[in-house]
Design goal:
single chain; alpha/beta; nine-stranded mixed beta sheet; 15 strands; binds tryptophan
Length: 322
């Protein structure tokens, strides 16, 4: 079952945020959540198979190998909520392990309807599972999930794939604190974090040889053309992945190849781009394993356990609400 979005004005919001982000005086930007329409979600699926992008596979390896250990640390009865479920593929291992112990309610929260559909199709064959998906932003969706939990149930919230890294560090702590406020003491948060690695490896991971990541990023402009009637010429923008050493992040940009003007009718604006000017679309922050203990504490959690992949440095952190 899927609880659909209650946003009759979604196009209007999109137009509004596009106008805002592109009319800014300094660095132009577009919110990364809009990368994931049907095309974007499918392209991201492909990214997760690229040899250069080890993140998703590391995440999945850890969840598969340690599902039993992770689940053993969370006392039953448990209900599971997932923020940004994506296809649901890597969540299978945890859910199967849980469903062996108890009937399990699983509540994926996703703004992408197509990802929610994919996720439900992927997981509905698991024995003793009930799935209720929420087409919502993370915090709204999570609040709604808590109205479904039974009194004696603990919530295990999954925030996998290092999506936390798409916030800058202070905003990441704030987001975790917001999650914490929705939870009860003793609830759990399983948080995936991508760990620091050499710059060349990171640039390759975010600017792959085949150009899938470039297509994924450029799809945002294609989406603005499709949904807001804009006239972006995609051949006049280039995907750029840049290391920001100070922030310990990779920044994704779309760089204008020349001076150009783009009309976005539904947003009621025309935007001028200088040659070499960029639109910042997303950043992916990288962490040290140790800093998660402090980050957890700052947000009102305690980091109880950590599992780290040996092949592609990535950590699953099990946090308990203090
Ligand atoms: N947020 C994910 C990450 O940081 C997804 C991602 C992979 C991504 N490649 C990207 C987002 C390129 C924007 C552009 O790894």
């Amino acid at each position: 079952m899927i609880i659909p979005a209650v946003t009759p004005n979604a196009t209007y919001d999109f137009a509004d945020e596009v106008r805002h982000g592109l009319s800014r005086r300094g660095q132009k930007e577009l919110p990364s959540k809009y990368l994931y329409d049907e095309v974007g979600s499918a392209l991201f699926e492909v990214i997760s198979y690229l040899p250069e992008y080890g993140l998703t596979r590391a995440d999945e390896r850890l969840l598969r190998r340690y599902a039993g250990e992770i689940v053993d640390r969370v006392p039953a009865p448990v209900a599971v909520a997932e923020l940004g479920s994506g296809s649901g593929k890597k969540t299978r291992w945890l859910l199967e392990e849980l469903c062996r112990r108890q009937r399990t309610s699983y509540y994926p929260v996703e703004i992408s309807r197509s990802a929610l559909d994919m996720c439900e199709r992927e997981l509905r064959d698991i024995d003793a599972i009930s799935i209720v998906g929420f087409e919502r932003e993370y915090l709204d969706g999570l609040s709604e999930v808590t109205t479904y939990r039974q009194k004696n149930q603990r919530l295990l919230v999954l925030f996998l794939g290092s999506t936390i890294g798409n916030f800058d560090r202070p905003a990441g702590v704030k987001f975790l604190a917001d999650v914490r406020r929705i939870l009860d003491p003793g609830d759990f948060l399983l948080l995936g974090t991508d760990l620091e690695k050499p710059a060349e490896q990171l640039v390759r991971a975010y600017d792959d040889e085949l150009g899938v990541t470039a297509a994924f990023n450029l799809n945002l402009l294609a989406r603005i053309n499709r949904e807001l009637g804009a006239n972006f010429d995609l051949s006049q923008f280039a995907h750029v992945a840049r290391i920001n050493r100070k922030a310990r992040s990779v920044e994704m940009h779309l760089e204008s190849r020349r001076l150009q003007r783009v009309k976005i009718p539904a947003a009621r604006v025309t935007i001028e781009f200088q040659e070499g000017e960029t639109i910042w679309t997303e950043s992916s922050h990288k962490y040290s394993a140790m800093e998660m203990f402090k980050t957890a504490r700052e947000a009102g959690f305690r980091c109880e356990a950590q599992w780290i992949d040996a092949e592609w440095p990535f950590a699953e952190n099990l946090l308990v609400a203090a």
